[in-house]
Amino acid sequence: EVQLVESGGGLVQPGGSLRLSCAVSAFSFSSYSMTWVRQAPGKGLEWVANIKPDGFEKHYVDSVKGRFTISRDNAKTSFYLQMDSLRVEDTAIYFCSTGAWSLGNWGQGTLVTVSS
Amino acid sequence: DVVMTQSPLSLPVTLGQPASISCRSSQSLVYSDGNTYLNWFQQRPGQSPRRLIYKVSNRDSGVPDRFSGSGSGTDFTLEISRVEAEDVGVYYCMQATHWPPITFGQGTRLDIK
């Protein structure tokens, strides 16, 4: 069974940084794009970023461009979201998911709270 | 960006009765390869999203056959033939034809009357 496990969330002040991780198992990790999606408290789903299998092509939603960086380590079957210059509006549960368009498997999510 | 508009946003349903959720996109979701990248997700209370349907009408493994997806172009529908208690949650459509960004509908909250 495919498993995705996020970690790295927590409370951070505005302007601070966090690095989220997603460990993926029982999946052909190196062959697929990977995606981060977030959900603000009580709100809907928002696509954040994805990364192609080779790690070179990356895409971001406009609101995080220049502040967030997605990366991956195929040897560790893990991918990451480095979040810098965090804002209050980045407060959300961050989910990792498999695929670029498919989003067929999801992690349990990790909560990021940006507050002073 | 492609705007996805769901209706209704709230859907109270009697157990055993059918339910239907509409999703409309601001432009056609037919991609140049002939596929239409429209997925449906279910999010039960306190859980992660779960994909139910991919590319308009393909049901995921383990998804009950009372769930079905249909549509084309800009108009899509998720139907539940007979609602059960475990179907309570929020349903989202999502397009991945015109990206970035991938965009989701606002969500439709289904509960039991």
Explain briefly what this protein structure is.
The complex is a heterodimer of chains A (116) and B (113). With 116 residues, chain A is an all-beta fold. In chain A, 0% of the residues lie in helices and 48% in strands.
Let me know the number of strands of chain A: 10
Mean pLDDT across all amino acids of chain B: 98
> What helical percentage do the residues of chain B reach?
under 10%
Number of helical regions of chain A: 0
Instruction: Give the SSE string of chain A.
Output: EEEEEEEEEE
- CA distance, first residue to last residue of chain B: 36 Å
| Secondary structure tally: strands of chain B | 11
Encode the helix/strand succession of chain B as letters. Answer: EEEEEEEEEEE
Helix content of chain A: under 10%
Decide which structural class fits the backbone of chain A.
Answer: mainly beta
Q: Point out poorly predicted stretches of chain A.
A: none
Q: Biggest sheet of chain A: strands, sense, closure?
A: 6 strands, mixed
Oligomer: heterodimer
- Share in β-strands of chain B: over 45%
- Find the structural class of chain B using helix and strand composition: mainly beta
Q: Compute the separation of the termini of chain A in Å.
A: 40 Å
Strand order of the largest sheet of chain A: 2-10-9-4-5-6
Secondary-structure blueprint of this entry?
The complex is a heterodimer of chains A (116) and B (113).
Chain A: E1 3-7, E2 10-12, E3 18-25, E4 34-39, E5 45-51, E6 58-60, E7 68-73, E8 78-83, E9 92-98, E10 110-114
Parallel strand pairs in A: 2-10
Antiparallel strand pairs in A: 1-3, 3-8, 4-5, 4-9, 5-6, 7-8, 9-10
Chain B: E1 4-7, E2 10-13, E3 19-25, E4 38-43, E5 50-54, E6 58-59, E7 67-72, E8 75-80, E9 89-95, E10 103-104, E11 108-112
Parallel strand pairs in B: 2-11
Antiparallel strand pairs in B: 1-3, 3-8, 4-5, 4-9, 5-6, 7-8, 9-10, 9-11
